[in-house]
Amino acid sequence: QAVRESLVLLKNNNQILPLRKGQNVLVAGKAADDIGQQSGGWTITWQGTGNTNNDFPGGQSILDGLQTTGKEVGASVSYSASGDYDAAPDVAIVVFGETPYAEGQGDIDSLNYGAADTTSVALLRKFQAAGIPTVSVFLTGRPMWVNAELNASDAFVVAWLPGTEGLGVADVLFAGSGSDFDFKGRLSFNWPAIDLNPNDADAPIDSVLFPFGYGLTL
User: Fold this and answer.
1) Mean pLDDT, the chain, as a whole number?
2) pLDDT in tens, 80-127
3) For residue 76, what is the enclosing H or E element?
4) Is 113 exposed, middle or buried (0-12, 13-18, 19+ CB in 10 A)?
5) Over 144-210, what HEC string results?
6) 209 CB contacts (<8 Å, ≥6 apart)?
7) How far apart (Å, rounded) are the C-alpha atoms in residues 120 and 112?
8) Cβ atoms 136, 155 nearer than 8 A
9) CB neighbours of 132 closer than 8 A, spacing ≥ 6?
10) Mean pLDDT confidence for 61-90
C-alpha cells in the first residue's frame, strides 16, 4: 500500500498508462530486476551495495511484479535489460535510476541525473525512434533534473525507492486491468526544470518544472 500510494505520475501522453489486457509489454533496464537498487542505502550493507536479489527473501523486483500481474490480467511481459527485441512490443517500460548511497557517498554537485547515466536516455530514444510507446519508471531518493529522459518518454513515473515491494509498482501501472489502484502520490518537493546547484537557496521560480503537490491521475 505504501508503494502504491507513493508513486508519482509526472507525464502520461495519449493515456499510455494504465497498461492493458492483451498488450505485449517489454521491460528494459537492468534496474528492473534489482531489488537492491529499489531499496537504496542502509539496506543490509551501509551503502546498500553488493547485494543480490537472493538477499531479499520474499521480496519482488519491479520485473517480478510486472510479470506476476501481467499473467493475472492477460498481458505478455518479457524482459531484456538492453531493450533488444525480435517483434516490436506494444509498449516498453524502462526502469532506471540512482544506485544506492548513504551519508556523504550520496553528496552530489549537480542534480543532472544524465551526467552519471547516459545509457538510460539512449535506450528511451531507441524506443522513441522505433515508434514504440515508452513508460519510464524512475528510481530515486530525490528530485533530479531529467528533462532529456522526460522528453524521450510517453509516460513518466517516479517510483522513489519501493524497496522489496515491486508488486506495488505493477498494481498501479496495470490499474484498471485487474487492479483498482490509481496514482495517489504527490510531489513533496519542487521538481527542477534546470540543473540547479543543490546549495542554491535562491533559485528562480522558473526553475520549477513540476511544483510541490503535483501528481497526475489516470
Assistant:
1) 93
2) 999 999 999 999 999 999 999 999 888 888 889 998 899 999 999 999
3) strand 76-80
4) buried
5) CECHHHHHCCCEEEEEECCCCEHHHHHHHHCECCCECCCCCCCCCCCEECCCCCCCCCCCCHHHEEE
6) 147, 191, 192, 193
7) 13
8) yes
9) 26, 88, 89, 91, 92
10) 96
Per-residue pLDDT reduced to its tens digit, 175-185: 976 567 999 99
What is the rounded distance in angstroms from the CA atom of residue 153 to the CA atom of residue 130?
13
DSSP secondary structure, 17-74, as one string: PSP-TT-EEEEESGGGG-HHHHH-SSBSBSSS-S--GGGSTT-B-HHHHHHHHHHHHT
Q: Helix, strand or coil for residue 12?
A: strand
Identify the burial level of 173 via C-beta atoms within 10 angstroms of its C-beta, where 0-12 means exposed, 13-18 middle and 19 or more buried.
buried
